[in-house]
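This part of the workshop introduces the protein records we will be handling. Getting from the letters to the tokens is the skill we practise here. The record below serves as our worked example for the rest of this section.

…
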Amino acid sequence: MQTITRFLYGPTPEERVRAWQGKLRAETRQLDKEMRQLEAATAKVRITVKQLAAKGDLKSARILAKEVVRSNKQKDRLSVSKARLGSIGTQLQQQLAMAKVTGSLQKSTEIMKLSNSLIKLPQISHTMREMSMEMTKAGIMEEMLEDTLQMDDDEEIEEEADAEVDKVLFDLTNGKLGLAGSARTELPTPQDQLEDEEAERVMEEARKQLNGLLSG
């Protein structure tokens, strides 16, 4: 009888909620993993920034410092998204408690608002789109408009203010930013050029590793 009912009416409210909560837990674990990877990569870049600054290569140090700023913003974004996943889980648990009384899931503007914001995060966009469609069919959400799904403009990260980059450099070099910029005044020697080439190689490797995580 239960099988026939499921065939005619689909999963029960409890089955739907349990399935969604399972997806939320899986995405939360994925965000935790990405934050750990990002933190590890950023730590390596911070060391490289200090090394470049100590050698007086302020230009390269500033480029990598900007990547550190981008990384910090991405970690904040992932952390906020993780909290929102948790909020959806709490809302669904409340929905389940109400469904036991009313017999059905109720429309929730809070779940819709949280889901809309999470769809904008590439790491979990696919799962959240699927869940949103399922929740719409279940009556929890209204159908989302296309303009709601568009990504946030990322220009504030690409065009980071020099003041914030300077602050990162200042922190990473223990307040020796000015000394780093004026460390080299004489003409470069062949040995200096070799060191510059090595610094450039190290910087590019650090940028590629961090950018791979930031573009995830």
Observations:
- Residues 145-154, 178-194 have pLDDT under 50 and may be disordered.
- The longest helix spans residues 58-102.
- Residues 56 and 180 are 5 Å apart (CA to CA).
- The chain has nine helices and no strands.
